[in-house]
Write the structure tokens for this entry.
Amino acid sequence: MTTEQTSARSDTAAGSRSRMLTNRILMVVALLAIVLGVVLGQAFITWVNATLLCLSCIGIQ
Amino acid sequence: MSRLVSLLLNTKRRWVQAVSFLMMNSFVLQALKAIPCLGMNCYACPGAIFACPIGTLQHFAAIHQIPFYTLGVLCLIGALAGRLACGWLCPFGWLQELVYGLGRRFRWPRWHVSERAGWLRYAFLIVLVGLVPFLTLEPWFCKLCPVGTVEAGIPLLLIYSDLRAQAGWLFVVKVAILSGFVIWMMSSKRPFCRFVCPLGAIWSPFNRLSTLRLAVDEATCTRCDECRRVCPVDICVYENPDSTRCIRCMECIRVCPTGSIRLVGE
């Protein structure tokens, strides 16, 4: 294996590790956001908003 | 992860889409409306059991709150699977594929739109879902959304006769928009997903970072373009397996004659 091929593989592996790390961070942040949202009562607000009859679908509020 | 991949590859996607549509509109367990829907499904639909995430985002924009909960759910799904829900669960995506199939059957002329216009879905997200509701306190994307017209507006007017008098000029505009999309759907693959859908715009950037991704073995790929032929969003998979347009339907994996495309999980 040449030096260039080794370097390319290292870059690919490094890129993969970077992507995995970003992915894990995103998932943790998403979970924290969900918890924060539930604590702030946003799940309830979502339920109320979705349950009330919304007439935007026929063009009025 | 390999079991999930195997399950997805061995499951008929059209059946999953059909079951998803029925379940999302099964009129049971209204308590589930606290959960954002994993697809475009209007919560005003008489049978809807989940909350449309785009309608919810507009509501939070109108009440001037950051929607941590809804964004957290969407980001979690995106980080796990990218736009997989678009390809397997979204009722409107399923409808577009059915209508395109009708267009092919009746030899409807094809209409190619440059993929450069794909940035429009980000514009719809930022302007119509974020900025306009923030300023006007009204969900203007909902007022124009063709998904709401077909899933909620038309069924509600059919069921409740006293609502019909309240439908005014804006409903005529919505029906015209829906009609335009239906004609477009017969000519192009999933036009709403590729150029308009704000939910797809949220999930698109996650395709490059999600746990589940597509990978192409360039050594065995012959660039026969079979993947593009079956792709519901018209992608050359071998050029960009992590395309922001990819809806992870896996039709390309099924059809690849050399087995060069695979789904990987990290």
User: Anything to note?
Assistant: Chain A has two helices and no strands. Chain A touches chain B through 36 residues (CB under 8 Å). Residues 1-11 of chain A have pLDDT under 50 and may be disordered. Residues 50 and 57 of chain A are 13 Å apart (CA to CA).
